[in-house]
Design a protein that fits this description.
It contains 23 helices and 26 strands. The chain has a six-stranded mixed β-sheet, covered by helices on one side. It has a five-stranded parallel β-sheet with strand order 4-3-2-1-10. 30% of the residues lie in helices and 18% in strands. Bound molecules: alpha-D-glucopyranose.
């Protein structure tokens, strides 16, 4: 009897599997029904009219083309009802293949989080993942299937406006953050209603644009490409990233969009990526401007051959691919491969089961900017704030302060707190965004008098507001002064040749300093700025970036000590633009400067100190931390072995605080010169006053390996320095070990 039952169960389970056709079977069956035009339709993406995020190709009859199955995806169409409307058009097409809706949900949808560069300053991977998770929930509830994020471009040049969108200059930190963001956006499984597809961008090395000028050429060695720029993409892929977006720039003379080496050899070949690649906005057609394609037809040929699967807004595939196939210049199997990659994601997202499953107005209502989301946004924003100076211990402020003067052009701004790459939701007013002024109002009690003066504009030369500002300062016990660059002075196509405080803001600071009042300077920006006079003459400076919809609350939480600042800079701050590129993990050179002022036949500028203004990994707290008892588990480590580095951290101050303990290594002699130090691990720990914790870092061969001339990734025996510190320049404890064969 038992045997029969088990046989029956086996048959039932088998029939279950056979009913559950694999996604690949479904893709292949659908592909077999498709005409060449319908296949090419899936490779075509147009923008909706919600936002314009690039030069428009103006396609007037999109709706007709959707019904004809000539468009596979739309970007910049959002909202449960609006996406449903477009999807209904797609359901009128012959094969009813649903549209994919993509959007730049880079740091939040309605609830917005700090700019990604600011979030990177939190060094809090759980917080970063949570921010992406909430962004996914809110956008997925609004009809979005696919976010064009995370941007994982490493950059060492703050003149480049898009540094605001990434995780800064360091490959290790950037790789960890890339992984966390993909996990946040995609959740446990694609197809969950709270998950969206991630899109890792911009592949590749877009952040190495010469001169920090957006869209400019990139010229890096293959070895540098692998060592510095590719690892965050691989990390994002390891996290399961569903899609990639290529970049506008040429890499060593070949535009990324037409670059077979990076898209086919590396991404789809060596890394076995089975998702799809979308071109960046118009980048296929822009290969004509590059001088790489003579016309859109050649651009289409080069792009599809190089592995660009979907054409965003350039019309190249739409009007040329069919002809290329009919002429035998492009094999239909290349088209089929791209179509299958895209259809597979549509099946995984459950869109063939229910094309409207993400366009749910009720869910949208529940999800957007709910209290759980705003609470998280406020906490993540506070963690992203970096305390640069607090010499007179002016901070934290007392809630018993009688009169506070809040001065500056940023104080009452609302939308600006979103920063760049925010989604300006049409039918939503910005009242939910907490301005810096509102944050202060909500923080202090009725016994504290608040005074306000704008003082000056952000870029205006007009100083007529100075007098009012000085008057307000003279009536105040403490002044908070909020300055910076405008929120849209960083972002795409926002490179700046000089990255100082615009307008007359630094002159306002000088005027207010003369009052002798305690002044807290807040600096709002999407990049490292140069503000030497302020940095040298003002004792209290807080870098507040652009912190998102809870900015005001987060800033006040930090200013009044309800949150003890813990942020650490993810990018080096230069003294001047002339110092760029300046980054912590530089090579030694044959003539390294011995100290800050050494100019004697060494690698230095004769007119500038050798160090940056603020170092990578730098940030202060309202408490202090002692580093002690550095121990290495062994002095010599074999290649297949591991070595533990333990260190004890003590909170030697009077209040709870968090410290980002950083582990740097230096390979002292190798067949490829190695950086003077490289971040290889970090821990963000929370300690009560007086509390100590011992943390253990594990060093394995992976952390010692590097790319050789032949691109082999391996370590070399020899001596290594171990450095543990509170920043790349504040090394507290040192050790060394030998790596043996
Ligand atoms: C833009 C950006 C890219 C963005 C895309 C769609 O030009 O380069 O990051 O995702 O177009 O808006």
């Amino acid at each position: 009897m038992k045997k029969h039952v088990s046989l029956m169960l086996l048959l039932i389970s088998f029939s279950g599997i056979s009913q559950q056709k694999s996604i690949d079977q479904k893709v292949n069956e659908l592909l077999a029904k498709m005409t060449l035009e319908e296949k090419i339709g899936q490779l075509n993406q147009y923008t909706g009219d919600h936002a314009v995020t690039g030069p428009l190709t103006m396609n007037p009859n999109k709706k007709e083309e959707i019904k004809a199955g000539k468009i596979g995806s739309m970007l910049n169409v959002l909202g449960a009802n609006y996406t449903r409307g477009y999807q209904e058009l797609a359901m009128q097409s012959r094969l009813k293949i649903p549209l994919l809706f993509g959007l730049d949900v880079v740091h939040g949808y309605k609830t917005t989080f700090p700019l990604p560069l600011a979030e990177a300053a939190s060094w809090d991977l759980d917080a970063i993942e949570l921010g992406a998770r909430i962004a996914a929930r809110e956008s997925a509830a609004s009809g979005i299937h696919w976010t064009f994020a995370p941007m994982v471009d490493i950059s060492r040049d703050p003149r480049w406006g898009r540094v605001m969108e990434g995780a800064g200059e360091d490959t290790y930190l950037g790789s960890k953050i890339a992984y966390a963001r993909v996990k946040g956006f995609q959740g446990n499984k694609l197809g969950d209603l709270n998950s969206v597809m991630a899109c890792v961008k911009h592949f590749a090395a877009y952040g190495a644009a010469i001169g920090g000028r957006d869209y400019n050429s990139v010229d890096v060695s293959e070895r540098a490409l692998w060592e510095t720029y590719l690892p965050p993409f691989k990390s994002a892929l390891d996290a399961g990233a569903a899609t990639f977006m290529n970049s506008f720039n040429d890499i060593n003379g070949i535009p990324a969009t037409g670059n077979k080496h990076i898209q086919r050899d590396i991404l789809k070949g060596k890394w076995k990526f089975d998702g799809f690649v979308v071109s960046d906005w118009g980048s296929i057609g822009e290969m004509i401007n590059h001088g790489y394609s003579k016309d859109k037809k050649e651009a289409a040929y080069q792009a599809i051959t190089a592995g660009s699967d979907m054409d965003m807004e350039s019309n190249s595939y739409r009007y040329s691919l069919a002809e290329l196939v009919k002429e035998g210049k492009v094999s239909e199997s290349l088209i089929d491969d791209a179509v299958k990659r895209i259809l597979r994601k549509k099946f995984e997202m459950g869109l063939f089961d229910d094309p409207y499953r993400y366009s749910d107005a009720k869910r949208q209502q529940k999800e957007l900017n709910n209290p759980e989301n705003t609470k998280a946004a406020r906490e993540i924003a506070a963690k992203s704030i970096v305390l640069l100076k607090n010499e007179a211990n002016t901070l934290p402020l007392s809630k018993a302060t009688k009169t506070i003067g809040f001065i500056g052009p940023m104080v009452k701004l609302k939308r600006a707190n979103h920063g760049f790459w925010a989604i300006d939701l049409k039918d939503v007013d910005s009242s939910y965004i907490v301005s810096q002024w509102e944050g202060l109002e909500r923080k202090v009690g009725k016994n504290t008098k608040l005074l306000y003066a704008k003082g000056c504009g952000i870029t205006s030369p007009d100083k007529s507001g100075f007098k009012e500002a000085v008057d307000v300062a003279n009536q105040s016990d403490v002044v908070i002064l909020s300055v910076g660059e405008r929120h849209d002075m960083s972002g795409e196509a926002k490179s700046r040749s000089s990255i100082g405080l615009p307008g007359v803001q630094e002159e306002l600071i000088k005027e207010l300093q003369k009052t002798g009042k305690p002044i807290v300077v807040l600096i709002n920006a999407g990049r490292p700025l140069v503000f030497n006079w302020t940095a040298d003459n003002m004792p209290t400076i807080v870098y507040t970036w652009w912190l998102g919809s809870e900015a005001g609350n987060a800033i006040s939480d930090v200013l009044f000590g309800d949150y003890n600042p813990s942020g650490k800079l993810p990018m080096t701050f230069p003294r001047t633009e002339g110092q760029i590129p300046i980054y912590y993990n530089h090579m030694s050179t044959g003539r390294p400067a011995k100290n800050e002022d050494d100019k004697n036949y060494v690698s230095a500028y004769i007119d500038l100190q050798n160090s940056p203004k603020f170092a990578f990994g730098y940030g202060l707290s309202y408490t202090t931390f002692k580093y002690s008892d550095l121990k290495l588990s062994k002095n010599t480590m074999a290649k297949n072995d591991k070595l533990e580095v333990s260190v004890t951290i003590t909170n030697t101050g009077k209040r709870l605080g968090e410290e980002v303990v950083q582990l740097y290594l230096r390979d002292k002699v190798a067949s490829i010169v190695r950086p003077v130090k490289e971040l290889k691990d970090f821990r963000k720990i929370k300690l009560s006053a007086g509390e100590s914790k011992t943390i253990v870092f594990t060093i394995d061969d992976e952390k010692l390996a590097f790319y050789h001339e032949n691109l082999e990734f391996k370590s070399e025996s020899g001596s290594f320095d171990v450095m543990v510190g509170a920043s790349s320049e504040d090394i507290r404890l040192k050790g060394e070990f030998e790596l043996s064969e």
